[in-house]
Amino acid sequence: MDHIKKQASSFLQDKYRSVRIALTDVTEAELLAEEATNGDECSPDARTMTKIAEASHGVDDYWRISDVLHRRS
Q: Which UniProt keywords apply (predicted)?
């Protein structure tokens, strides 16, 4: 039963992210930065951190990621 709950939660989170990207001025990089700094005890995985690092090479995404980090500190 826990496996089904985790799958449903993951599915709903993915849909929420898609809707948020489509309907607001939020980029994938911002969502990843928010996910990485959400306050969970476990640290973000290497894949998420790599995507954030790659996105930060673009000027727009760099400023958006920086903004998320400043808001979360």
A: Cytoplasmic vesicle, Golgi apparatus
Q: What's the total number of domains in the chain?
A: 1
CA 67 to CA 73: how far, in whole Å? 10
Contact 37, 69 (CB under 8 A): yes
Residues 6+ apart with CB under 8 A from 49: 36
Which tokens go with 34? 């928010």
29-47 as b/e, with b when 16 or more CB fall inside 10 Å? bbbbbbbbbeeeeeebeee
CA distance 72 to 8: 28
